[in-house]
């Protein structure tokens, strides 16, 4: 069964009646990775927020449906949503610093999730938090536990947020431009971490990025969005090797200068490098 099923989702801004997303559909299988690419304002974030049940106030899913592990989320009460969020679906976003409380150590913030939502006792929560900090490949997790957010780099902060997002063992992680604010080397390390977590825990991912190279590296399937429409959708290799839509071709041309080639394959005539399984 799909862990996440998005069917014909349309999103409308109730304030002016404007429809901003005009029908998005995809299925996310356990351990699968779906990517959403497209220019700024194309509706990628609203689509994710609809799946997470956190649309901005006044915005509604005006048609279509979202089901998480077979449950249509439209019918959920606030309480049921709270139970589902974290335990089944988690998320990380751009700008990790703004999601951490500056006055608490990062360890205390993860422990709090484990105590309040996971029902762990203080000491168990501390031990589990340190395991999670190790699982996101932070060196010296015991010391990192006692650090305040401002003492960590952006890449370390994002690892802490990934640790918090997976702390309750969700099936799905939404990564919305999660590497965009980071420098290129750190970006690659975080992408490796996400690929690792998928491999080791079967976590399914929704990866939103304006960067095709990110999608080429991580995803099985990609949706290309422009102005709230999905203009092209399919297996990542098919879409990136044989784009059918002019807009996808344009995105690929724009990215060639940033080294998309190395994810797409070797020069003509040779077998493509399989970036998804290597
Ligand atoms: N809180 C909001 N209030 C008003 N309009 C919004 C709000 N959030 C999004 N929009 C509008 O909805 C459209 C889609 O936005 P969305 O954030 O989903 O795009 P995006 O593809 O994620 O872009 P970006 O890469 O810049 O985040 C845009 O036209 C945007 O202006």
From TrEMBL:
The keyword Cell membrane applies. Residues 4-252 form the ABC transporter domain. It is found in: Cell membrane. CDD domains: ABC_NikE_OppD_transporters. Pfam families: ABC_tran. It is a peripheral membrane protein. Its main location: membrane. Keywords: ATP-binding, Cell inner membrane, Cell membrane, Membrane, Nucleotide-binding, Translocase, Transport. Gene3D superfamilies: P-loop containing nucleotide triphosphate hydrolases. The keyword Ubl conjugation does not apply. It comes from the Bacteria. Belongs to the ABC transporter superfamily. PANTHER family: ATPASE AAA-TYPE CORE DOMAIN-CONTAINING PROTEIN (PTHR43297:SF14), OLIGOPEPTIDE TRANSPORT ATP-BINDING PROTEIN APPD (PTHR43297). This is ABC-type glutathione transport system ATPase component. The lineage of its organism: Bacteria, Bacillati, Actinomycetota, Actinomycetes, Kineosporiales.
